[in-house]
Amino acid sequence: MTSSFLAPGSHDELEEGLQLTPKFDRDGLVAAIVTDADGGGVLMFAHMNAEALRATIATGVAHFWSRSRGKLWRKGETSGHEMTVLELRVDCDQDALWLSVRVAGTGAACHTGRRSCFYRVVPTGENAAGRSLEPVDDERLFDPKTVYSG
Amino acid sequence: MTSSFLAPGSHDELEEGLQLTPKFDRDGLVAAIVTDADGGGVLMFAHMNAEALRATIATGVAHFWSRSRGKLWRKGETSGHEMTVLELRVDCDQDALWLSVRVAGTGAACHTGRRSCFYRVVPTGENAAGRSLEPVDDERLFDPKTVYSG
């Protein structure tokens, strides 16, 4: 499948226009931020190429480009944690997308088995230097060894 | 300022460890997702280099790397829309950060004057092909021509 998105136009068209003209980077990717539609914050961060974006738009189910595996990735195809897209938005310069989703199965979005990939807090402020990350919301909802084996 | 972050260790250390070892890309950047601490969803998407991340951690105020200007960028330095970081998290493979923030001034995070950079919905589903973007939450809280002039 090749991209049928139009190339980005002028600065003003990109920011103020109502035509989706994604600004793919030199690897052909845009950023994709996934949040929990039920108010649970950021679940994961991934990338889409034109094919993944087209598949997401057409099906309403989240598809990404797996940089590690070099292939189209229908989220949940192995684990069952499919993501239904309740709303898709694009940012001002059209190089980032925001997917508000509902996750199937156990509700875990992270391949480590957690609900969110963001399960560690980075301490900030005057006394932050050298402090360890702080685990938060890090319960495993599934065992990745079982789900991804074989 | 050079990075004093340790280099990423093993796969297991990166995902399960409590040491911040950011996985900077070939341009020396990690992704930075900014959400509204008061439940207002995703405000913007940007990047940080080691210096921006160190400054954000030390000050509790959001700093980024401006790819367009090629310089450290203390968000709000021109517009007054400084971002106080209420919580900073890192993702499983430590190449993305999530900043939960409160925005000063008018509360606008986007350089176009809107509260969020994500002010257009991309239609999805069976009849989505060829449909225009749909403006949402796109009121301008400030006039960019005035704020960024001169």
Q: How would you concisely characterize the structure shown here?
A:
2 copies of one chain form a homodimer. Chain A is an alpha+beta fold.
Report on the structure:
The structure is a homodimer of 150-residue chains. The first copy, chain A, is 13% helix and 28% strand. With 150 residues, the first copy, chain A, is α+β, with helices and mostly antiparallel strands. A 4-stranded mixed beta sheet of chain A has the order 2-1-6-5. In chain A, strands 3-4 form a two-stranded antiparallel ribbon. The longest helix of chain A has 10 residues, at 50-59. The first copy, chain A, is globular. Chains A and B meet through strand 1, strand 2, helix 2, strand 5 and strand 6 of A and strand 1, strand 2, helix 2, strand 5 and strand 6 of B. Chains A, B: It holds the Pfam family PRA-CH.
